[in-house]
């Protein structure tokens, strides 16, 4: 409100009274209070909405810390991702029967439901004359609905931290084609090498389908070459890095579905037969203990003698210094799939870069679980 009056000098003067100021101040304060109240209400609403929204997060657990429900959910996820069933017995054999009595798991959970897993299984290895526990990366899986968001790297990192805390200096694995690129780019794993396929096509049609009429001739030819193949004595192959094969490892790796053949002189061959695509009966030589050129040649010879009419092809997958007697090395173009070996040093003071030299390794498919 404005009031005019004159002083004795008759000059007009303007005066702003407190009434107008108090009205304006109250209006402004009411506006501020109203605005602040709206903001507080919005914040409370957002918090409530976030609280109600399902969360996806990552936790670390050892196998002995998993609940029965989590174990079952991991097996269900394995079926959804790989289209293969994992039984309770095979789960326990894989993850509990280890030198530690457990394995390591980074789990992605969505509202307490397992939708992703990164697992590592510890095993005993000889490393240049000293025994170490290394860890094998297995069964990395994420439900397609929950891929992305950085959770995969978080799962791997918590497992790496768990391994380091237990003094495990090295993790390695055999990633498939898709996981290989992700593992190299995001987890910074290093290439170690690629495994080779050594084959004996008892039925030539297992390699070239149109040659099926010649199967009889090819079986006879294989009998002859394996019967007369030269087996070198004292041909022990020395490897600086090799798994320790003992009762604990065998309990972890093999069940009653695997077959064994005694090869004499304390040697043994483990193999398994699969029906592959196209109905091809395939015999995989999983391992020969001890792994020497002589014991592997004896294994091929004995298997060929007893199984020549039961299977179509014999395959050994591994890395050898030379071609074993009785088997041919398959060219890269004929490999059913590429099997790459990669790894990551976790404790540099214990393990050096020699672990990335494939020639130092004794390795075959007994070192992982694809067969």
Provide a compact summary of the structure:
This protein is an alpha+beta fold and 371 residues long. It is built from 8 helices and 16 strands. Helix 6 packs antiparallel against helix 8 (293-307).
Entry keywords:
371 residues, alpha+beta, Aminopeptidase, 3 domains, 6-stranded mixed beta sheet, globular, disordered N terminus
Describe this structure in words.
The chain is an alpha+beta fold. The protein folds into 3 domains: 2-52; 56-194, Aminopeptidase, CATH 3.40.630; 196-338, Aminopeptidase (3-Layer(aba) Sandwich), CATH 3.40.630. Helices cover 32% and strands 29% of the residues. The chain contains 8 helices and 16 strands. It has helices at 18-52, 68-82, 88-95, 151-165, 177-186, 215-228, 247-253, 293-307; strands at residues 2-6, 12-16, 56-62, 104-110, 113-127, 130-142, 170-173, 190-194, 196-200, 241-243, 259-264, 267-276, 280-289, 313-318, 328-329, 340-345. Strands 3, 4, 5, 6, 7, 8, 10 and 16 form an 8-stranded mixed beta sheet that branches. A 6-stranded mixed beta sheet has the order 11-12-13-14-9-15. Strands 1-2 form a two-stranded antiparallel ribbon. Strand 11 (259-264) and strand 12 form a beta hairpin. The radius of gyration is 34 Å and the shape is globular. The protein starts with a strand and ends in a 26-residue tail after the last strand.
């Amino acid at each position: 409100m404005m009031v005019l009056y004159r002083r004795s000098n008759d000059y007009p003067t303007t005066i702003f009274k407190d009434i107008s100021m108090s009205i304006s101040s109250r209006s402004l304060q009411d506006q501020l209070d109203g605005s602040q109240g709206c903001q507080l209400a919005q914040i409370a609403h957002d918090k409530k909405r976030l609280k109600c929204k399902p969360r996806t997060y990552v936790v670390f657990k050892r196998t002995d810390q998993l609940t029965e429900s989590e174990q079952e959910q991991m097996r269900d996820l394995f079926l959804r991702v790989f289209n293969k069933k994992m039984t309770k017995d095979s789960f326990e054999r894989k993850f509990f029967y280890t030198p530690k009595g457990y394995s390591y798991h980074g789990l992605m959970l969505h509202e307490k439901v397992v939708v992703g897993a990164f697992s590592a299984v510890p095993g005993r290895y000889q490393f240049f004359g000293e025994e170490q526990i290394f860890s094998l990366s297995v069964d990395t899986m994420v439900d397609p609905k929950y891929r992305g968001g950085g959770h995969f790297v978080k799962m791997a990192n918590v497992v790496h931290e768990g391994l380091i805390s237990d003094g495990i200096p090295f993790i390695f694995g055999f990633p498939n084609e898709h996981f290989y690129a992700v593992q190299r780019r995001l987890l910074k794993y290093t290439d170690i090498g690629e495994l080779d396929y050594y084959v004996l096509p008892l039925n030539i049609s297992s390699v070239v389908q149109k040659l099926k009429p010649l199967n009889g001739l090819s079986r006879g030819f294989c009998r002859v070459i394996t019967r007369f193949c030269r087996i070198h004595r004292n041909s022990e192959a020395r490897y600086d890095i090799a798994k320790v094969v003992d009762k604990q490892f065998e309990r972890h790796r093999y069940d009653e579905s695997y077959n064994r053949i005694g090869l004499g002189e304390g040697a043994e061959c483990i193999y398994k037969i699969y029906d592959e695509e196209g109905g091809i009966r395939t015999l995989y030589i999983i391992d020969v203990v001890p792994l020497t050129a002589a014991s592997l040649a004896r294994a091929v010879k004995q298997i060929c003698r007893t199984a020549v009419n039961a299977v179509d092809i014999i395959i050994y997958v591994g890395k050898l210094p030379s071609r074993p007697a009785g088997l041919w090395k398959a060219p890269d173009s004929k490999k059913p799939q590429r099997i790459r070996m990669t790894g990551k040093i976790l404790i540099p003071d214990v393990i050096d870069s020699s672990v990335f030299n494939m020639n130092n390794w004794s390795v075959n498919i007994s070192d992982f679980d694809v067969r």
